[in-house]
């Protein structure tokens, strides 16, 4: 079995286009691992981009500049096991995510 991975940590290609997650990611339903850490993304977390990724097990968005609350839609990600939002400016309550084994908010 193959793991479908998108590893773009600290990647100059990503940060030269925008300061947020590319919306084209929505069409990559087979991804299991997404790492967009260290890209200086900013603003609120665009969870709608990730909701179509039904196979997603690991989501690393650490060391960016996301702000605000984690959206309730995070709880809809049924296969998510690892979620890293460390070193961002997240505030407010944390939605219930049933399968997550590793959940990082602070470094």
From TrEMBL:
Entries under Pfam families matching the protein: LRR_8
Leader sequence segment: none
SUPFAM superfamilies linked to this entry: L domain-like (SSF52058)
Name assigned to this protein: Putative leucine-rich repeat domain, L domain-like protein
Species for this entry: Helianthus annuus (Common sunflower)
The organism's taxonomic lineage, starting at the top: Eukaryota, Viridiplantae, Streptophyta, Embryophyta, Tracheophyta
């Amino acid at each position: 079995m193959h793991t479908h991975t998108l590893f773009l940590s600290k990647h100059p290609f990503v940060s030269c286009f925008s300061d947020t997650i590319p919306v084209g990611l929505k069409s990559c339903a087979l991804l299991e691992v997404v790492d967009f850490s260290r890209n200086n993304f900013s603003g609120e977390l665009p969870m709608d981009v990730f909701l179509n990724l039904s196979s997603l097990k690991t989501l690393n968005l650490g060391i960016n500049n996301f702000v605000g609350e984690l959206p309730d839609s995070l709880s809809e990600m049924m296969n998510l096991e690892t979620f890293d939002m460390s070193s961002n400016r997240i505030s407010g309550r944390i939605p219930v995510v049933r399968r997550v084994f590793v959940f990082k908010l602070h470094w």
